[in-house]
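hiii so um. not sure if this is the right channel but i have a protein structure encoded as tokens and i wanna go backwards to a sequence. like what aa goes where. can anyone help
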């Protein structure tokens, strides 16, 4: 389906920015919260708080390399990068902001403390993981490392494997 010149559908590989988006899904989302399923309102609230703190950390304090040029020499590709800078620094250097917006960003940056921000991120992440680990599905509580843990504390791996194989078939 085409809407306003943009193709909409489930096939994301047609978009020219797909590789960039998928890379950011790893570095900005999956690396921080993993591949768990978050489906309760409490988990949604914890995830929102975590993303709010992560947004500030990634944009103001996490430098990133930006590719300047790629050159192929024989069988090798030589890449040249711009100096590492945070998105905040790149935005200020671009001179595309109004004076008022720049002043607001500088004020926000000066009020942030990177150590407190990292502690808040860790606290929000632990809260989120505690919520997920407390959930009970099919008589089993999801473990942090992926092993099944029975509600009453006893390990029933054979029964769990039998259920899983029956669900697959």
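sure thing!! here u go:
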């Amino acid at each position: 389906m085409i809407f306003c010149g943009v193709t909409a559908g489930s096939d994301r590989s047609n978009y020219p920015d797909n590789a960039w988006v998928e890379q950011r899904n790893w570095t900005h989302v999956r690396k921080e919260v993993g591949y768990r399923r978050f489906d309760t309102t409490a988990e949604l609230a914890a995830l929102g708080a975590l993303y709010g703190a992560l947004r500030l950390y990634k944009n103001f304090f996490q430098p990133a390399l930006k590719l300047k040029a790629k050159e192929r020499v024989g069988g090798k590709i030589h890449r040249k990068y711009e100096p590492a800078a945070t998105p905040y620094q790149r935005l200020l250097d671009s001179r595309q902001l109004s004076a008022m917006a720049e002043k607001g960003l500088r004020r926000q940056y000066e009020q942030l403390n990177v150590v407190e921000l990292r502690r808040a991120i860790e606290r929000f992440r632990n809260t989120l993981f505690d919520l997920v680990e407390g959930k009970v599905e099919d008589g089993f509580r999801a473990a942090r490392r992926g092993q099944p843990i029975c509600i009453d504390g006893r390990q029933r791996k054979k029964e769990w494997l039998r259920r899983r194989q029956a669900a697959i078939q």
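oh and The radius of gyration is 22 Å.
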